[in-house]
Design brief:
It is built from one helix and 66 strands. About 2% of the residues have low confidence. The strands form nine sheets. It has an 18-stranded parallel β-barrel. A 13-stranded mixed β-sheet has the order 3-5-7-11-15-20-25-30-35-40-45-49-57, with no helix packed on it. It has a ten-stranded parallel β-sheet with strand order 8-12-16-21-26-31-36-41-46-50, with no helix packed on it. 1% of the residues lie in helices and 42% in strands. By secondary structure, the chain is mainly beta. The chain is elongated and about 105 Å long.
Length: 615
Amino acid sequence: MTVLNDVGELRAALSTQATDHSFYLEPGSVMALGGTELTVDGGNFSLSSDGEGAVIDAESLSRCIQVISGYLRLINIKLVNGVARVGGGMSVGCSDAGDGGCTDSSGAEVHLVNTTISDCRAEAWTSEYGTRNAGGGIALRSGRLTLEDSAILDCVVQGVSFWGGNSGGGIAHHDGDLRVYRSRIERCHVYATVSGHSAQGGAYKAGWYDSGLAQTAEWYDSVISNCSVNSYNGQAEGGAARIGTFYSRAMIIPFVRCTITGCRAIVRADATSPGSTTAQGGALCVKQSGEDGATQETGFVVEDSAIKDCEAIGINAAASGGAAYLRYRRSVALVIRNSTVSRCRAKGTSALGGAIAVDHSTSLVKMYSTLIERCEAYADGNIAAGGAMHVRMGQLLMAEGTSMRHNFLTDVRGGHNHSGAALYVGAAFVIYLLPTPAAHWLQAIYCEKVYNPCPDYCGDTCTLPGEDTDNPDCTLTLYANQPCPWQYEDHLGDSNGWEHVLGSWFQTIPPGAIDHSEFPIPCVPGYYATPGDVVAQADSICGGLCPEGHYCPSLATTEPLVCPQGMYCPLGSSVPLPVPAGTSWDGVGLAMASEATTTPSGYYSSAGQPEPTPC
């Protein structure tokens, strides 16, 4: 390992195109770049430090590092004060031509380990054809980027761009492959400086024009916090992350065991702004362009994760999706599994979907074992709808105990133009597939195929489709209007997309508002249901009345309580009742008052007394 003592030695080392060469910077050392970025174009390098780490300081005069090709590994290095139109701290792949995308793969690969990129900016204050500002911390333009136990902090995208917006406060992912493990992006922001322009992806923006290159991303065990997108008279899309590609590109990005917290999409509008001015997705935004009817899938998979305290805020403007927003002309998807969405809010003149807003016919949301709680649609001028979710169009599947709890609407002006404290459904296809959470219910039915009657001349010889038969005329045919949606084609082009509903209990959610404080609906006091009893979840009687000798005092009771001493509990009790005066009961589990013990002579008993008292 070669020790480098000054920035001149560092530049010379990285320009050698050496193979498997390791360099070392002394802890606490500062390499001031003096206005010229470091460049790697070929070779295989490792640059490391120990202890407090070493600093590479661009002094707000240039980008810190550009990796056009080759391999670079940074260990315990701090990149600070970088500035460029694309990739303020670091650019991976390509040269600086164009607006950040690539037309061919550069073979660049960067691996950041325990490395911090902070106080960097992607900005330019003049508009050139085909340009936009992107990647305050890093621009991944092709090749491969891996972050491991690293952080991107306090980075910003701002300035004037040609294409109408700025993007990727932490990372702008144009092409190539991204892997993020146990890392943090905090306090990164995107500002659309020009009126009417958009701001996209406060921490992370994925997707660019279709270049034909592979593009993948994975996030594990990582945190995005307190990031934002900010627009004036334009669109603010995805306070934490925004994905959107063009034409033939398909991209699904998993967030696994991640936390997204305190992120915001903020739009400020004046009286001259267009009606489309909207804050969209306080945390996540999925918007796909391209040809109508295309079936390429683009979106996020959120698993074992938490999205909390995020907001879509419209100041004199509309807001949709405090946590997530989906829209556009191609198949966009959001899958949430074993996760929570809490304390998120859409706040604006109109507020749709305190947690999630689905806004196009080709949008698809699937939620499994997911809880949305204490989210709010807050309107200060027009309509508030969908405290948890607003599904204007598209498809929504809820399954495996997904629930919405204590979500609400706020209508500041009191116009009563609000509906759906839990859920609002427009022209959308929405179903809930049981089981519900324990001791909750829906008005569900069992899904099975329904056939037309067997012709009389066939007697009892009719066969099901696909079975061997000597008389094809006696093969049963499907009833034209099936009572459950197993034939329904999902928006990702899978003709069997909903066939898994067969053999299950489900409810189709009709258009309109659901205002329950909990959805699915909890069993009321006096009733109970055993966990796992799916049939009991298909009706409001749940598992039935609380059994004799027991009481079920709360919503969603799963274990009836034994009636205590001095009390009796008839069938369906929500509270124990005292045995009458003149009787007593020192046991437990009494079902009827008539079964209590009569007080003998020389004693007296007040109501609810376990044992008589001597006179």
